[in-house]
Every structure is written in C-alpha cells, then in structure tokens.
C-alpha cells in the first residue's frame, strides 16, 4: 500500500522556472489524490478546465489539492478522486512581478525635414515596464496561453518592437515637434506611446506600466551641427567666441612652433587685441570729452578744446576745424 500511495502522490508546481518567463503551463498529466500544489512567492496559479478558468490562487504556499483546492473551484466542487483515477486539469503558473525591458529602434526612423529633402534618419532607445494584468487573465488565456506552453519577456519585446517605429513617427510628427530638439519633448512622446501600446496589448492581458525614451540619436553630421549651434547660442558673441578659442589654442601650445601658420595666427590675434584696445581707449576719451563739455556748459564757460575733433578753440564760439558749436 505504501508503494501505491507514493505512486499516486504528485506535486503540481512551476517546474521550469526562469526569471524571464512570464507564464508556464502544467499540463497533460493527471492530478492524483493526495497531490500537493506549490505556489512560490511572485507566482499565481490558475486552474483551467476545457480552456476556462476554474479558480485562481494568489497566495504562495503549499496546499493539499483534494481538501484545500478542489472545494474552491467552480465546476469541480463535486469531483471525487477514485482509487485509479485522477483529475485531468491544467494549471497555468504566471509570474506576477513587473518586468523592465530595454528597447531600441530596429531600424532608423526617417523623419521629414523642411531643410533636408530626404529627411533625417534617427534612432531612439529607452526602457518599458510591463506586467500581467490579474484582472484580465481570461484574455491572456484566450489570446496567448491557450496555444502556448510558455511565454517569455523576449516574446513581449519582439511584439512591441514591431510597432515602435510607427508609434515614434506618429508622436514625433504630432503637433510639429522640433525634430532637432526631440529630447525636450521626450516626456510627451513617451506618454503618447504608452497610451497607444496599452490599447494594443490589453486584449492579451498585458499592461504596459511605464515607457521611457532615454535618448534620440542623430547621424553624426547632424549631431555635430546641433552641438555647434548650441555652443554658439550659449556664447552669444561669435567674435568673443573666436577670441576665446584662439586664446585656448595658444595656451595649449597648438599655435606655437607651427611655422608660418602659427606665426600668422598669433599675429592676427595680436592685431585683433590691439584694435580692441584702441577702440576701447577712443570710447573712453570720447566719453570723458562729453562729460567735460557737459560740465563746462553747465557752468556757462567755453571749452578750450572742441569736444568733437579735439582742436584748440582759443575761446571761439565755433570750432574752426569742424564747425562744432562750442556754447
């Protein structure tokens, strides 16, 4: 009798567990009398009979099939185990955790551009989060689990990657997003894609809980143009930017010892600096002359020098050189 008892003793559990597995089906075997159901943390167990849900068990632990499971099933409550017969049912074990998946565009997205007739090919990458919706297990069974023994994260990734390019194109083009500054609109684009993905996946019992775009990648020449434009915008004064660039080059020794090219560059920079010094001195002198003229005019006295050209006035009311009125 002990031999027969052990022969009929069976364990129903997730036998081929992998961390990336979304569900696994225990099937094609009889559940014997005195069988035990083992549900591990992070798992739900769904009893199926003829493709329909008989009962769902969410709490992890070890249960006696006959006394603790059968009484709670819908149409199998009256089932009685015989000596040589068991219960032919299927148990679908599902992974209830949230999965995080990295994604990247399978091919460049060619965005229409007002400045480039052929458009701009860009790529994007990021992450999305998903989990099985325990309120929609019947949808999962009817659309996926009914014909599959197991389902993995890679299966979901392939399915979502197949529609990502179209969704990215849709939400980038919507409302005239700036194609040269897409990162600034990444939040809005991500939210739009999240909404559309859930519309497509909810009938499969899968819920996308988050979708993020980490970066947009432009062709190298376009990226260089964007970077250069951003740098010039930050500097503001292009002339000043050129001076700083030459100063840095001299400090790093890039213009020294360079033969004629280095000498010419140093000479040009020296001329620019000298010219700026002269202009600054002239502006200072003109400002001082204007202040002196204003002060003298306020006191009713005649200036000894023309404030316009600097010619000595000898007390005249008009400048003999340029005709400037002195009073």
The CATH topology of the domain at 99-222 corresponds to Tetrahydropterin Synthase, Chain A
Instruction: Count every beta strand, where a strand is a DSSP E run of 2 or more residues.
Output: 14
What coarse outline follows from CA principal-axis ratios?
A: rod-shaped
CA-CA gap between termini: 133 Å
Report the C-alpha radius of gyration, rounded.
Answer: 40 Å
Q: Helix content range of the residues, please?
A: 25-40%
Global structural class: alpha+beta
At the first level of CATH, the class of the domain at 99-222 is Alpha Beta
Known CATH architecture of the domain at 99-222 = 2-Layer Sandwich
Q: What is the count of helical runs?
A: 8
Mean pLDDT: 79
In words, what does this structure look like?
The protein is α+β, with helices and mostly antiparallel strands. Among the domains are: 8-95; 99-222, Band 7 domain (Tetrahydropterin Synthase, Chain A). Helix content is 39%, strand content 23%. The protein contains eight helices and 14 strands. Strands 6-5-9-2-13 form a five-stranded antiparallel beta sheet. Strands 10, 11, 12 and 14 form a four-stranded antiparallel beta sheet that branches. It has a three-stranded mixed beta sheet with strand order 1-4-7. Strand 11 and strand 12 (120-132) form a beta hairpin. Helix 4 (153-173) crosses helix 5 (186-201). The radius of gyration is 40 Å and the shape is rod-shaped. Mean pLDDT is 79; it is low at 1-8.
